[in-house]
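Lecture 7, part 2: worked example. A protein chain together with fe (iii) ion.
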Amino acid sequence: MRVLGIETSCDETGVAIYDTSHTGGSGLLADALYSQIAMHAEYGGVVPELASRDHTRKLLPLIEQVLHDAKLTRNDLDGIAYTAGPGLVGALMVGASTAHGMARALDIPVLGVHHMEGHLLAPMLEDDAPDFPFVALLVSGGHTQLVEVQALGHYQLLGESVDDAAGEAFDKAAKMLGLAYPGGPHVAKLAEQGDPKRFRFPRPMTDRPGLDFSFSGLKTHTLTAIRQLEAAGELDTQAKADVARAFEEAVVDTLVIKCRRALDQTGLKRLVVAGGVSANQRLRERLAVETEKRNARSYYPRGRFCTDNGAMIAYVGAQRLAAGERDDNGVMKATPRWPLDTLTPT
Ligand code: ATP
Ligand code: MG
Ligand code: FE
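Predicted complex, written out as structure tokens:
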């Protein structure tokens, strides 16, 4: 089954085609991405109305592009999957209405899928994809969650952030340091020049049991540190790098501690890390050491599938459409809030 996947939940328009007659990454026939980052950077964050309009402008040309790249025509498609949530409602509706319009015209099935299930299963597009079951750490701009995954659709939430997401914390710290949006990669780059011994920031919620996270206190701590340096006339490039380093270490250490706990608690030996923050090299280095100690292994999507993309949506949609799932009563779905653990297996 050849499935067109459409991602428009936030600030990237992603389109891909996945073919279920292949396995793993070889089923990915084409994928294309248009990032709106440059447009939103001017405002220091995503402007929802601009995002919707830009998805409208870019989606159809990207669909033409992936069909061309895969040497297919619309008539070769057997189904369409789109991100139905969570995300910005206007942005979601662009993908949902385009998917439904096309599916109606082509008389093929259509299904709205969960954006975080896409992130969670993105490592399935790699050659060394993990087998089930595994623990997943989802770390993105809007989510920080630990999930026990028994099979596709079998998701048990082990813990999550009670306030800011890890990616959001990176973005806010970047803003305080005068770095561009989205801040994660910029903070990470600056942190490379930082002295890890100069500051030590708190590791929130690690001194008590449990798998929940909190990053808003760390944000305040970062702001206070910057203000103090500024007041002392010491906020030079090196000091900013030292703050970035302390901030990154605190976030990474917190994530590592909770992953360790989740592996011990579940007894599982596979850890999947996905979502934008999974691109962070320091996090990957630290988790490599921790998993090795436990005779476990960590799995990641390739770099460009860590952040939003159409490939992960085409993959998840293809699995579910091939199992016979369809949108209820043929009605399009755009659900800004949609808890991952309400999903069901195929
Ligand atoms: P969600 O998936 O929760 O709806 P989102 O789609 O906006 O949120 P993603 O696109 O998966 O999130 O990831 C974007 C986030 O990842 C941003 O917050 C960005 O700062 C962060 N990020 C990207 N690269 C890095 C990195 N190298 N280090 C830390 N954070 C990073
Ligand atoms: Mg994004
Ligand atoms: Fe995302």
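Strands lie at 2-7, 12-19, 28-35, 79-85, 110-114, 134-139, 144-151, 154-160, 270-274, 297-299. The longest helix spans residues 237-266. Keep this in mind for problem set question 3.
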